[in-house]
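for the recovery benchmark. tokens below, seq after
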């Protein structure tokens, strides 16, 4: 019997179905036309085959759907040519065929379109309807002031400012900012007027020993006329002076030609007027180029992978080139800071390529961010708090940034991260699922307006309730170690567990070593549990004997029970 299973499960209860079980044919790219039933709730599309010889299950969050189109018309005559074509953001395309009589397609199309794009139809996002409950709330995992204190701030060079508490300095920045100690609030407002979207340079991370910092911001509004702003120039000088860096290095994520072109729309980059500063362009392409590259990648990984032309096809997407440029830029940032030089990182608006560079550099520099909870803090801080375009104008979630770098770190340094690959997959899946409030909207101010923290559940509530699922058994804590991965095309490979996971013929299996290690850990835990039970039993017995009349015994009498277990050890 041939069995094909393509599934992703979410173990919690949805709200009431909005489209009951309906007979339908799934055009499976691996098994051909498969008869079954489809159920649609306001969260997911669920399909299960009814064929005895082929088992196919689909469980697709509606938030992962980017497009729903009708396939064929009333006059279509080909077999299974009349139905729906669904494009997903997780690299899948799903095709369903229906009977042409009645309004079978219209009903399912309208339901899908309505609940896959709820904001366009005046409906709430599913995250606001979820009834999930967890023992711990993930909304408290990141506390800005506590994170700054962990880094050793404030100090005599840097202070904490609440100038943005009402989001009137910058509506896409968080309320708590770390700025040079010598800067005044009026200085910050003047600098904001010269930075795109008011996103001024602020401290994101500081090296405890050499006090070099990673500051992030947006491009200066130089324009075609080459405008200058003395306040902005002085402000960057204050950042440089904070640890007496000889030259402040400004990393502009964009290609040089793009930065020059941005002058036509009022943007630009720091010129020679910025004294004691050097400008380095990192040549990372913009979101439009990334999106086109991702589209090409999707074409070669789904549904079929052509083995004979795989390398040339992958090269033609330029996806790994983008990954390499991001990784190379982050290495430069980390190396510069590790050497004692402060840096400023920006792209155009400072909330896409900038976040990629700063977060990866911090993963290299700070072992805290390599722990399970530290990684959650890093995402909350660099991506969510500082703003990122998670949502488009229609309210749908999207993100086309390269997804491989964090996973590559795990390949290069298998013992350096407390979390495993499953955590990365979980985060990416829920980037789109709309099950949690964590990645809703683009910035804190909008999340506050929509009461995200009080009315939705955090993804970290789920993660921290099932910690064992996300732990790396090889993790060895090392504080102070800086990680430097190799940013070379010869060492980069596609993340198969994410990009090709829907193909049942290409299954990534857990390594035998990792599997055996997990078995040994489970065995150790079992022995420790038995030991604890024996010790509790022993304690109870000793207490009982102490409270009972004790007959006279000689010194050669039997040893007390506690000594019977003195040499009990686990084999690990």
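predicted aa per position
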């Amino acid at each position: 019997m041939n069995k094909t299973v393509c599934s992703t499960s979410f173990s919690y209860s949805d709200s009431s179905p909005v489209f009951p079980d309906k007979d339908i044919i799934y055009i499976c790219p691996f098994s051909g036309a498969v008869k079954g039933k489809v159920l649609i709730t306001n969260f997911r599309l669920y399909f299960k085959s009814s064929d005895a010889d082929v088992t196919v299950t689909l469980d697709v969050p509606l938030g992962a759907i980017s497009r729903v189109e009708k396939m064929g018309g009333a006059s279509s005559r080909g077999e299974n040519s009349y139905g729906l074509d669904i494009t997903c953001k997780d690299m899948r395309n799903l095709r369903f065929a229906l009977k042409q009589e009645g309004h079978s397609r219209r009903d399912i199309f309208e339901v899908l379109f309505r609940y896959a794009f709820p904001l366009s139809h005046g409906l709430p996002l599913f995250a606001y309807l979820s009834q999930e409950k967890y023992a711990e709330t993930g909304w408290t995992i990141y506390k800005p002031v506590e994170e700054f204190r962990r880094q050793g701030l404030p100090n005599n060079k840097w202070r904490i400012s609440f100038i943005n508490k009402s989001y009137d300095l910058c509506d896409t920045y968080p309320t708590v900012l770390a700025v040079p100690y010598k800067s005044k609030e009026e200085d910050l407002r003047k600098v904001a007027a010269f930075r795109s979207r008011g996103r001024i340079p602020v401290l994101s991370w500081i090296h405890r020993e050499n006090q070099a910092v990673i500051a992030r911001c947006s491009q200066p509004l130089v324009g075609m006329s080459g405008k200058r702003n003395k306040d902005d120039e002085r402000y960057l000088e204050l950042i440089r002076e904070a640890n007496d860096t000889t030259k402040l290095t400004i990393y502009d994520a964009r290609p040089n030609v793009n930065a020059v072109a941005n002058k036509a729309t009022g943007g630009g980059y720091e010129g020679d007027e910025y004294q004691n500063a050097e400008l380095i362009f990192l040549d990372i392409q913009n979101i439009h180029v990334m999106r086109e590259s991702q589209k090409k990648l999707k074409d070669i990984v789904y549904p079929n992978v052509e083995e004979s032309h795989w390398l040339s096809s992958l090269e033609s997407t330029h996806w790994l080139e983008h990954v390499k440029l991001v990784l190379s830029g982050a290495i430069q940032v980390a190396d510069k800071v590790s050497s004692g030089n402060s840096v400023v990182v920006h792209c155009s608006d400072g909330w896409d390529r900038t976040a990629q560079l700063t977060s990866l550099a911090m993963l290299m520099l700070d072992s805290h961010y390599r722990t399970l909870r530290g990684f959650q803090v890093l995402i909350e801080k660099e991506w969510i708090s500082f703003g990122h375009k998670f949502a488009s104008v229609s309210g749908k979630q999207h993100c086309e940034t390269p997804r491989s770098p964090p996973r590559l770190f795990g390949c290069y340094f298998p013992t350096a991260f407390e979390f495993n690959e499953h955590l990365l997959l979980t985060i990416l899946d829920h980037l789109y699922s709309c099950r949690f409030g964590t990645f809703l909207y683009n910035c804190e101010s909008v999340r506050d307006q929509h009461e995200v923290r009080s009315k939705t559940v955090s993804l970290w509530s789920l993660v921290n309730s099932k910690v064992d699922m996300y732990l790396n058994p090889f993790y060895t804590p090392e504080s102070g170690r800086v990680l430097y991965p190799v940013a070379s095309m010869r060492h980069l490979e596609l993340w198969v567990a994410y990009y090709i996971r829907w193909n049942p013929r290409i299954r990534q299996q857990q390594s035998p070593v990792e599997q055996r290690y997990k078995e040994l850990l489970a065995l150790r835990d079992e022995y420790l549990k038995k030991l604890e039970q024996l010790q509790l039993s022993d304690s109870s017995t000793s207490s009982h004997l102490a409270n009972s009349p004790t007959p006279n015994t000689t010194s050669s009498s039997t040893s007390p029970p506690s000594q019977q277990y003195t040499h009990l050890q686990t084999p690990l």
